[in-house]
Amino acid sequence: MNGGRKAKLYQFNPNGVSVLTKLSHHESRQLHDKYVSRRTSFGKDLDLEAGVGTLILAECKKAGIAPESVVQHITPVAYETLINLASEASRWRVPGGPDDHANLNSQMNELKGPGFRRRVQELLGIQERPAHCFLVLQNGKPPFATDNIIEVFDRADAPVMFVVSAASLANQIRAHVPDPLFVFEP
Q1: Could you tell me the pTM of the whole model?
Q2: Which of 31, 45, 70, 119 is most open to solvent, judged by the fewest CB atoms within 10 Å of its CB?
Q3: What does the pLDDT look like over 42-52, one tens digit per residue?
């Protein structure tokens, strides 16, 4: 079962996760296992969502933040990263001929704004799940996901220690993972 997903996600191999996170195979696998144990969606062990979750934990670990303290808060940022990547038609493979790919391309291009975003979430099977652009860690406060980073920096309640950006994560994945990232399943 894939949770209503209409797309297959790119599958990593263990070495691919290590290359993406720039950590040893052992460290990457430990972080991956932490993410997968908290995972709320259906998927394969080393799919793109798990790779994104592992990458978030690796970024936190490199910043000196214990992965255990953030693992339960990262899924919305992982989903936003997937939406960011899936919003590019070039990231998709469509079984069939060029007309099938052109059809998906035109469907995605016809929609704008929230309608487009909903369609991408629907294709990924995450339409009912929260997705946020940033994971924020503040001194003395639990981590949280948000879309408004300016508001966070404007508040004076606690200094910001670290921010993970879904757009930055998507760029890291673009640099290390070949296309296609998603395969459309009609």
Answers
A1: 0.88
A2: 45
A3: 556 789 999 99
